[in-house]
Structure formats: C-alpha cells, structure tokens
Amino acid sequence: MNIKESPSGKIINTLAGYQEFMPNPLLQKFEWNNSLVKRLSRADHILSMLP
User: Fold this and answer.
1) Is the pLDDT of residue 4 over 90?
2) Rounded Cα distance, 41 and 46, in Å
3) 23: closest CA among 8, 4, 5, 6?
4) Which of 6, 13, 19, 42 lies at a C-alpha separation of 20 to 30 Å from 36?
5) Cα 39 vs. chain centroid, distance in angstroms?
6) Strand blocks (E) in the chain
7) Residues contacting residue 6 through CB under 8 Å, at least 6 positions apart
8) CA distance 36 to 47
9) Is 35 within 8 Å of 17 (Cβ atoms)?
10) Among 30, 20, 27, which residue's Cα sits nearest to residue 9?
11) What tens digit of pLDDT does each residue of 9-44 get?
12) What local confidence, expressed as pLDDT, does residue 3 receive?
C-alpha cells in the first residue's frame, strides 16, 4: 500500500523540509471492558517473552 493513500492519516511537510506521517485522531470515546483488558494483558505478556 502506498503510504500517501493511507486511510489512517496523511503525509505533511515539516518546517525543516522533511515529510512526516500524521495519523488521524483516535476516537474520542474509548470503552474498556473485561474482554479487552484480558486480550491486552495477554498480548503484553506474550510481547514480554520476546528476546
């Protein structure tokens, strides 16, 4: 996928002349529930086992 066509954000030019990927804002409301917390905890545990 071409990053310039990403639905997740856009490319902008910085004051220093570089290009930067600017992600779109996240959703304003984020609801935590037990299932999400369990999955995040498991992912964190698995990532901690990587060398």
Assistant:
1) no
2) 9
3) 8
4) 6
5) 17
6) 9-13, 19-23
7) 21
8) 16
9) no
10) 20
11) 999 999 999 999 999 988 778 789 999 999 999 999
12) 73
Taking the alpha carbons at both ends of the chain, their separation in whole angstroms is 29
More confidently predicted of 19 and 2: 19
- Residue 10: CB partners within 8 Å, gap ≥ 6? 4, 21, 22, 24
DSSP 7: T
DSSP string, 1-51: --GGG-TTEEEEE-TTS-EEEEEPPPPS-----HHHHHHHHHHHHHHHT--
* Residue 26 token pair: 């996240």
> Residues 21, 9: contact at Cβ < 8 Å?
yes
